[in-house]
Specification:
Number of strands: 2
Largest sheet: 2 strands, antiparallel
Order of helices and strands: HHHHHHHHEEHHHHHHHHHHHHHHHHH
Distance between the termini: 50 Å
Shape: globular
Oligomer: single chain
Helix content: 55-70%
Strand order of the largest sheet: 1-2
Structural class: mainly alpha
Length: 658
Amino acid sequence: MFDFLYHFGDLLTLSNMLVLLLGTVGGIFFGAMPGLSPTMAVALLVPFTFYLDPATSLILLGSVYTSAVAGGAITAVLINIPGAPASIATMLDGHPMAKKGEGQQALYLAFFSSLIGGLVGVLALIALTPPLVAFAMKFGPSELFWVSLFGITVIAGLSEGKLIRGLFGGLLGVLISCIGYSPMLGAPRFVFHDAFTGGIAIVPALIGLFAIPQVLELAEDLHVQVTQNKYVPKKGILLPTLLRFKEWWKTVVVGNVVGVIIGIIPGAGGQVAGLISYDQSRKMSKEPEAYGTGHPEGVVASEVANSATVGAAMIPLLSMGIPGSPTAAVLLGGLLIHGLFPGPDLFTKHAAVTYTFIAGLFAAQFSMCGIGLLFSRYSHAIMNISNLMMMSAVTILAVIGTYCVQNNMQDVVIMMVLGVLMYMGIKADFPSAPVVLGIILGPIAEENFLRGKLIAETDVGVFSYFFTGGINLLLIALVVVSLGWGILSRHNRRVELPRPKLQGPIFTKATRPEWLCILGMLAVIVFFYVQLPLGSTEGAAIFPALMLVLLLALTLIKAAGEILYPKKDIVARTIPFPFLRIIGILAGVVAYIAAIEPLGFYFSSFFFYLLTTVALDKDSRSPKNFAIRAGTIFACLAFLYVLFSILLSVQIPKGLFL
């Protein structure tokens, strides 16, 4: 606590406060955008932190994170679409309030609740992290290996009934992290092309896996019209609305307790906390039947809990390197690119950076609340941005964000390929969060596995080293419990279904997608197995081979499940999939990427943005609308030019033109 107060003054510089303000505004904007998650907002900004000092960069990422979680309430209330996953429970009562003409009150409640929950989460971070850091000093290679696996299994176990897919995605992420030369042994693994010699950088992977699937999903619904509610700002209702919090003190307490506990659990996230808090609040309420009809207490329960997870999610991240949420996993990448590794060193060697970041997270709660209350009067205007414009803008930001990491267009190509593959995986119900966490935790798991193996071979043996000792056994138990939780949840969902007879039809039209999924999993295994350096004498193939064995085991379990529990019903698709549109957009993006180096980033971006929007929007083809669209795009790119090329001095591809 005293260290936190001592370094709080480091926050109060002009650059830090400006970054805090900009991060808050940007975070609320991203959070309010349906389909643009806090995770993607942080992932897009991670590359630009190269050009800031570590403390300032973390203040930026932290303010965007906390503001994006709170900003998701704007769309949850106004149009019944959670701008962020954490706002799922908020819309259950927030939108009914808006339909009754109380949208402004609902947003006031949401942002003030976020302030309360956010402050409690940061205080929990300050109070609980030092004891966990002292405990983390007892961790050696074997313990850190099991911690890495625990982080992957937790997020996979919370994959909404997709346990096998989640685990497969997590282990696949670990396998992807093995591409390139082993940093510890210097031996090659999975070097498919010279571009992969140095492996896949964290930032291109993060942007590709989060941004590109979102772009293509926005492209699927380009012409879906959203009916907006009439929203008339009112005066003089802020103070009466806030004074009602004394009626809901029990809900506030429950929301904070749930948010902190769920935030500390790796992988759970704000959506879990919000729903649990909402459910507990309803059970404790004297009028539970009012929930879901526009009850203000429901908004408070959700927003207090999901914001409390933000600070709490940093506790396992800073102390042991285990992200408490997918967004915290991305923020871990922001730490690593500045050479900051979670653990005791953060609070000793890098104490100034760490406590300045925590101070920034604390101050961001007030900044978020103040700006959020202001936005509450005018936030309906954000909904006027079309999917078409957002799709093109996110593509451009993804390209520039990926390129400036290493000033390499090959990273952009890798980012795009990973994004398209992840989009295909999402269509097959593979969640993206386990893949991302696997990529981030994979190097930690591999390095500690190999280091532990070398130590064990000179002492007690590999098995004894990894499977004995109190901390090892505790972590192994947590891994087992994590997997058991997922298996039990899966079983409970099936318990009411009649057990199919083994002699029943296994290969039917209803089971075809699942068997195609299994074939795809086998294809991935074969693809990596062919490239596995089995003759390596340095031992670099041991860890990837272990991952392939686990992937094969999951695939066989999945196949056995389809044999024992074949699907009987076909889920009808009511809206035809727009294949031609998706293919056309992908072709346009490929052409855009190919044109960047010869023509220049800003020039090619202008024509990509303009031609894409004109081609897909008939209304913009009239001379007047075309001129307005071109002027708007030019202004946006001019803003990017001033921000990146002039203010931040970010290296941008230059060709014949800008």
